[in-house]
Design goal:
The structure is a single chain. The chain is an alpha/beta fold and 417 residues long. The protein has two domains: 16-43 and 308-416, Aspartate Aminotransferase, domain 1 (Alpha-Beta Complex); 51-305, Aspartate Aminotransferase, domain 2. 39% of the residues lie in helices and 16% in strands. The chain has 14 helices and 17 strands. The protein has helices spanning 16-20, 48-60, 71-91, 105-120, 139-148, 165-171, 194-203, 223-226, 251-256, 291-307, 309-328, 355-364, 377-382, 399-416; strands spanning 29-30, 33-34, 36-37, 99-102, 126-130, 151-155, 176-182, 207-211, 230-234, 245-249, 267-270, 275-277, 333-335, 345-350, 367-368, 370-372, 388-392. The strands form five sheets. The chain has a seven-stranded mixed beta sheet with strand order 4-10-9-8-7-5-6, sandwiched between helices. The protein has a four-stranded antiparallel beta sheet with strand order 13-14-17-16, with helices on one face.
Length: 417
C-alpha cells in the first residue's frame, strides 16, 4: 500500500447557469425578453427544493404545532422544531432555545426594543446606531427613546459610504446601553466591521444587536464567533419564504426578558388572576406560527449549504467587480457607495434621469432592479439625492445578466441624452 495520499480532486467551478435552472421563476419572459432579476437585496427568489419542501408540508403534514396528540400535529411539530435546530446549526448558536421565529428582521428588532429595551433603558441612557441603517433599525429605537426617555446617537459615514469607525468609538460612552448596527448596508452594500464593533461595545458594557438581513445570504454567519448579543435576519433574503425570520439572542438575555406579545403557546398557565409564561424560545412566539415558512427556511439553508456559502460569496464578488467596472464606463452614471468592502449591491444614479424612470426603462428590457430610497432615507439625505437605482446579485445571476444590465442602461442613456 502506498504511503502517499492521493491528490484531492480540483474544486468544481461555480456553475451559475446550472444554479439558475433551480429557480423556475427565472425561466419566464418579461415584456417579451428573458427575465434578468437583479433585485435579490429586496427578496431572493426561491429554488425548487424550497418550493417542494413547503408543498410537502402543506400537502402531507399541515396541522397546528405543539399541543396536538394526533399524527399530523406531531409531524408538523417535528418539522417546525426541526427547522429551529437547522437554524441553530446554520448560525452556530449554542442552543435552539436561542432561536426565536419571527416574521422577519423588522419584527425581531422591535421585539428587542420592546422586551429588552423598555425593561433596561431609561432617562440618560443612550442607544448607538450608524448612519447606514435601514428604517427597521432606526424607527424602533426612536419609539423606545420616546417611551423610555433615552437618547439615540448616530455614528457618521463618509462619502464612500463607509462607517467612520473612530467616531463610533468616540460616541460610545458609559451611558451607551445598546449598540444596534447593520452587518451589511442594504442601500450601498457596505460591510461593517461588526466583530470590532461588538468587542468595543462589550468593553464599555453595552449590548449589541446586529441587523443581519443583508449579510445572511452572502457570508458565513457564526454568532458565537461574532460574540453579539442579538442577531436578526429574514428568510426571504436567503432564498426562503416571506413572513419568516429569526431572532438569535444569548440565552441568558432572552431568559431575563419578558414576553413581548401575549396569547396562545407563549403561556404555561392562565387564570384570571395570574399567567405564567412558557420556556424559551416559545415565550416569544405567541399564537400560531408560520410553520410552512420555517420549513421553507430550513430547506433554503440546506440549499445554500449544498452550493457552498463561500462559493456563492466568491461568485457574487466576481459579478460585483464586473458590474462596477462596466457601469463605471457608461457616461453620466455615478456609483453611490464605493466602500472597500462591499456585498453584492450596486447603487447608482444616471445624470438627467430619475431612478424611477430608469427602473421603468430597464423593466421594459426585462431587467428588474430596485429604485427609491431603499428604506434608508438618511443615507439618501447624506448623499443629497432623492433615490438611487440598485442592482443586487444572488447565487443565480450570471455574467450575461450583467451584460443585459449594461445594454439596458445604454439604451436609457440614449433616451435621456
Amino acid at each position: 500500500m502506498s504511503a502517499i495520499a492521493p491528490l484531492a480532486a480540483p474544486p468544481t467551478a461555480y456553475d451559475a447557469a446550472r444554479v439558475r435552472r433551480d429557480f423556475p421563476i427565472l425561466s419566464q419572459t418579461v415584456n417579451g425578453r428573458p427575465l434578468v432579476y437583479l433585485d435579490s437585496a429586496a427578496s431572493g427568489q426561491r429554488p425548487l427544493p424550497v418550493l417542494r419542501a413547503v408543498e410537502r408540508y402543506e400537502t402531507h403534514c399541515h396541522a397546528n404545532v405543539h399541543r396536538g396528540v394526533h399524527a399530523l400535529s406531531q409531524a408538523a411539530t417535528e418539522a417546525f422544531e426541526g427547522a429551529r435546530e437547522r437554524v441553530r446549526r446554520f448560525i452556530n448558536a449554542s442552543s435552539s432555545r436561542e432561536i426565536v421565529f419571527v416574521r422577519g428582521t423588522t419584527e425581531a428588532i422591535n421585539l428587542v426594543a420592546q422586551s429588552f429595551g423598555r425593561t433596561r433603558l431609561g432617562r440618560g441612557d443612550e442607544i448607538l446606531i450608524t448612519a447606514l441603517e435601514h428604517h427597521a433599525n432606526i424607527v424602533p429605537w426612536q419609539m423606545l427613546c420616546e417611551q423610555a426617555g433615552c437618547t439615540l446617537k448616530v455614528a457618521p459615514i463618509d462619502r464612500r459610504g463607509e462607517l467612520e469607525y473612530d467616531r463610533l468609538l468616540e460616541l460610545l460612552s458609559p451611558r451607551t446601553r445598546l449598540v444596534a448596527v447593520a452587518h451589511v448596508s442594504n442601500a450601498l452594500g457596505t460591510v461593517l466591521p461588526v466583530k470590532r464593533i461588538v468587542d468595543a461595545a462589550h468593553a464599555r458594557g453595552a449590548a449589541v444587536l446586529i441587523d443581519g438581513a443583508q449579510a445572511i445570504p452572502h457570508s458565513r454567519i457564526d454568532v458565537h464567533e461574532l460574540g453579539c448579543d442579538f442577531y436578526a435576519f429574514s428568510g426571504h433574503k436567503l432564498y426562503g419564504p416571506t413572513g419568516i425570520g429569526v431572532l438569535y439572542g444569548r440565552e441568558e438575555l432572552l431568559a431575563a426578558m419578558p414576553p413581548w406579545q401575549g396569547g396562545g403557546d407563549m403561556i404555561r398557565t392562565v387564570s384570571f388572576e395570574k399567567t405564567t409564561y412558557n420556556d424559551l424560545p416559545w415565550k416569544f412566539e405567541a399564537g400560531t406560527p408560520n410553520i410552512s415558512g420555517a420549513v421553507g427556511l430550513a430547506a433554503a439553508m440546506d440549499y445554500v449549504e449544498s452550493l457552498g456559502v463561500e462559493a456563492i460569496a466568491a461568485h457574487e464578488q466576481r459579478l460585483l467587480r464586473l458590474a462596477s467596472d462596466e457601469v463605471n464606463r457608461i457616461p453620466g452614471i455615478e456609483i453611490i457607495g464605493t466602500a472597500a468592502h462591499k456585498a453584492s449591491v450596486l447603487s447608482f444614479t444616471m445624470q438627467g434621469c430619475h431612478p424611477h424612470d430608469l427602473g421603468t426603462i430597464l423593466d421594459a428590457e426585462g431587467v428588474a432592479i430596485r429604485t427609491g430610497h431603499h428604506c434608508a432615507m438618511p443615507v439618501m439625505t447624506f448623499f443629497d439625492i432623492p433615490a438611487t437605482a440598485r442592482a443586487s446579485f444572488g447565487c443565480y445571476n450570471t455574467e450575461g445578466d450583467i451584460e443585459a444590465l449594461v445594454t439596458a442602461l445604454g439604451k436609457a442613456r440614449e433616451v435621456f441624452g
